[in-house]
Amino acid sequence: MAAEEMAGGPGTGVAGQTTGSSESTSALDQGAGLFVGVYTALAGGHNAMNTALSGVQRDVVDWTSRLNDTNAKKSELREVIAEIREAIAEDTFPVTLTVEGRPVQVSSRDEAEKLLSSLEEEMQTLGDDAQMQQLQLQDLLQKQTQILSMMTNLLKVMHETCMAVIRNLKG
Length: 171
Known about the structure:
The protein is mostly helical. It has helices spanning about 5, 20-90, 110-170; strands at about 95-100, 100-105. It contains 3 helices and 2 strands. The protein has a two-stranded antiparallel sheet.
């Protein structure tokens, strides 16, 4: 085999095999150029989707954190509400409660009932907030699933395109 053929020079194909003519070499070059062009375009789409996925994942983490914070506040409020109800039921006043990290002195039943009403309203508001946060999180997870599905499909197309180009180059 000539040195030119081993080095992949004119008239050579894969692994230094002689293609037989400069027309075949030209077809191989065109096929390789097409392959690189298609692969580059598909890879660019993949990179864009990867960037979008990263943004959605950051949003998922953010909204999950917000929802966890809201649920923690609701849990604390439930405990305080239970303590107030117990104090009202047992008529044990004055009582000191911790509300949102601050001690609150409740001196009478009327004061306890007003505080209870206020905390129940706040609990309702937090429940509404948590529901909205859950919907937002669900929407983000759906977007994440769509992006992952598109990326999977794109990778499949990239693979099929590469295999088609390889088959054409062999063929």
